[in-house]
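User: For a reading group we're discussing how well predicted structures match intuition. Take Bax inhibitor-1/YccA family protein. Before you show the prediction, I'll give you the sequence so everyone sees exactly what went in.
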Amino acid sequence: MRTTSNPAFRNLPTTGGYANFNYGQGQPASPFGEATVAPPQTSRPMTIDDVVTKTAITLGLAVITGTLTYLVGPPAVALALPAAIIGLVISLVLIFKKKVSPGLVIAYSAVEGVFLGGISYLFASLVPNLGAGIILQAIAGTIGVFAAMLVVYKTGAIRVTPKLTKWIIGAAAGVAVLMLVNLIASFFTAGGLGLRDGGPIAIIFSLVCIGIAAFSFLLDFDAADQAIKGGVDAKFSWYIAFGLMTTLVWLYLEILRLLYYFNRE
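Assistant: Thanks. Here is the predicted 3D structure of Bax inhibitor-1/YccA family protein, as structure tokens, for the group to look at:
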């Protein structure tokens, strides 16, 4: 399996022992001339249906909790920060935990929904001329980018090669470092490096982030594809759902921020 820029996929095994999907067929004969019998299996290999189902569950839960949080009104903004902290802690546990934990993935999705609901309400309140319209635009943009990159991947218009993988990982790491430096700089100077102040540099930076997030989907799709082809255990589809969720959250936030830059008074 190729490396991906998404840390959520670090626990995906390279193979699950299901690569042939047919035990007892094509197995080397034993020294006594008998066919080798495969050991009994207590689970099954991952399928595309597993990935779609788990991803739908996580996204659906995030949409529900996000919508409910948004409908709370002004108090929703106060919920964003604690939800972000809790979500970060859960994500770190998921990334470094060795065993698959569907419960934590579900909890992460629910908390991220609260975070997104609070942030969405904040941006909507900052753009009174659009209100909830900016949220709908950001959702539409996120879905559009996701669908476009899925088509790009499935048609092979852009192939995931080791060179492309290294480029995307390097770009994502560079953006992360710049965000951290900008945050630290903002403690000492107003606006920090200007990456989030709404000016020309901030707009360009958001566009770059959107581009990197979009290309990161190619690595996510490839990681999922390789896992399915490698016969990885079906339970690891929760990791894939978690990984896709993190990329979608990042993309949505960047699109929402960019729309805010263009529509603020």
